Amino acid sequence: MIIVTAGHVDHGKTSLIQALTGMNADRLPEEQRRGMTIDLGYAFMDLGDDNRLAFIDVPGHEKFINNMLCGVSHARHALLVVACDDGVMPQTREHLQILSLMPLESLTIALTKCDRVTADRVSEVQIELGVWLANAVNLQGVSRQEFIVSAHTGFGIAELKMHLQTLSESEQTTAGSTPFRMVLDRVFSVKGAGLVATGTVISGCVSKEDRLYVANTASGPNNRAHKQQVRVRGLHAQGRESNFARAGDRVALNLTGNDHDIERGDWLSSIAMPEPVSRFAVVLSGFIPKHWQSVHLHHGASHQLGRIALLSEAPLTTSSANRKEYLAELVLEQALLPAAGDMLVVRDACGRETLGGARVLELEVPTRGKRTAERIEYLTELAACFQGANKTPLLALTVSCSRKAVSIAMQAWSWQLSEAELQQHLGFNNCGCDNRGSVHREHDNSGRADSGHGESTGLVSRGDWLVSRFLFDGFKTEMMARIASHHESNPDELGLGRARLLRVCHSGLPAALVNEAIDEQLAAGELTMTRGQLHLPRHAISLSADELLLWQTLEQMFIKSRTPLWTSDICEPLNLTPKQARALCYKLVQLGYISALLKDRYILSDTLQAGAAMILAHLEVHDAVSTSEFCAGMQMGRKAGIQLLEWFDRIGFTRRLFQANSRTLRDAELFEYLRPIKTPRQAQMPEPNHLSIAAASMSAHLSGHLSTNRAEGQSTGLSTGI
């Protein structure tokens, strides 16, 4: 257990700790010379049975308030020191206000220097302090005990020590399944050992040889340190060498494996950390905020400037009359990595006065619709998941999924959920978490991932995303309506590709969940996919007997020319007007026999698919395909080759690189069926140097394949159902 001190400068905090432990917490030469605490100090008191009580001595001078805030961050037990000769002083009041923002379980009050004053003066200080404690609304439910002591004479020290020992024995120290999390308040090097980082374990437990993630937010949002892990080579808990430490312990970790700077204010965690955020939703308390007010924000061992963006000027409906709360977003100059429920101390822009606190609600905030009624209602429901210092993460996860799709990894970090808690709440039998906190599922024999439906919880998961079944089914209904509307307005079009369907639906769901919805509809027979196009099963187009004869003649023309044909090239051989030629070509396009590169210019599907197959084969071993490589491989003129590449760009198959004459894949699924299946021996063989050989071979294969299919379709009738 750890007890943090608080109180005005020169009220005897360090002397009281020395009387309790026999240790001088002032370790710096400057502190000993001036007789004043400047930085955090540490001391330990033996309790017997190999147990120790740790003290964090904080500075009382207003100039060192940043160090004080670092020491009391996430404090559970506090020792408020008030000198009987001075009484309640400015820093006593500010420290008491800061303690009221912390998730305290107990507050011990020590009235020191009683040997210097009379009994009446002690009573006056008790009354004065009682008034301030009565005004601290957040401390009403906190266990409090008051002692009158003197570190100089030893009066009351024994009673205080006995109380602290009883408090430590009643402390519930169960590690549970909560992930390990700790903020670093000191980082230094020891000769022969290396890097040592100290801090207070906020949650979970840590052991030797554990691997932890470290987050460094000082380098800004582009820092990637949190993607790497460090190993715990050595461990000290409560000032002694140990193999294990748990929540509430003061620890020093000997870390190895880091290739980046670790400094004060960094975080250690047993689960993977997301990107630091510079904007997140909070609940403000303790003061009446102003929109775009500039403030100092303290979190853990770091502090920085930020602004308050009020979401609603009215206080929360759940707040009480004497403790009003406001919904807002904090906009920071430098990214932080808080978790939901963390309390940030808010001070004025000059850093002279503590205003109140900001409890973190949500790390992922929308760019639009921040102040809509639905958004305010959602944040109000999320705020209700906090009960005082306690939080109900599983309930909050359900609330979030009922409104939008959420990232499982982000929710695991935000609410500090372990693998066991995630599995229990999601209700997936075959799911688990990797060491990055992502949920994955086993695959069936078909190679497709399990749909990840938690029927018991009404949640749907795909990849790293999670959403409620209600929202998911609503999207499927909207998707089917969009496809039906597209068929109605474009009866001669085959359907929509996945990427285009996602754009048409304007859905807030991520692509992974959209693909899950499409897969469900395909499996249920509600949707059909033909040549990469999604359409309703009842949607069909067909050729008449005359059109079929015209197509047989036109196909031979395409084969002989080996290049795209204009409508004017088709009219005279087929004895058609331009209007009739366009109508025929349009229907042939929808049947998949030909494709329109641009207005009035068409290409045989055999040639088009050969080009797509060549691009897929080329990009398996190269980053991009250039225009010259493509034209050479297709044995096609540059103008026609560019038109074909631009057609691939329009349908979303490829993407042209910025200011470059080359392309990369965008949606490979449109032509995924063209990828050749290699034998193990073929997989070891080098790729051919001449792309024209591969293109010609694939073109011949596809020509025979499509001709066979067309012959089979013609033998059964003139109508081809799509």
TrEMBL record:
Domain (Tr-type G): give its ranges: 1-173
Give the lineage: Bacteria, Pseudomonadati, Pseudomonadota, Gammaproteobacteria, Alteromonadales
Q: Which SUPFAM superfamilies does the protein's record reference?
A: P-loop containing nucleoside triphosphate hydrolases, Translation proteins, Winged helix' DNA-binding domain
This chain's protein is named Selenocysteine-specific elongation factor
In the UniProt record, the gene name given for this protein reads: selB
Write out the annotated subcellular location. Answer: Cytoplasm
The task this protein performs is described as:
Translation factor necessary for the incorporation of selenocysteine into proteins. It probably replaces EF-Tu for the insertion of selenocysteine directed by the UGA codon. SelB binds GTP and GDP.
What organism is this sequence from?
Shewanella corallii
Q: What's an example of a GO molecular-function annotation for this chain?
A: translation elongation factor activity
**Which InterPro entries does this UniProt record tie to the protein?**
Beta-barrel_SelB (IPR057335), EFTu-like_2 (IPR004161), eIF2G (IPR050543), Elong_fac_SelB-wing-hlx_typ-2 (IPR015190), G_TR_CS (IPR031157), P-loop_NTPase (IPR027417), SelB_WHD4 (IPR015191), T_Tr_GTP-bd_dom (IPR000795)
The protein's UniProt keywords, in alphabetical order, are:
Cytoplasm, Elongation factor, GTP-binding, Nucleotide-binding, Protein biosynthesis
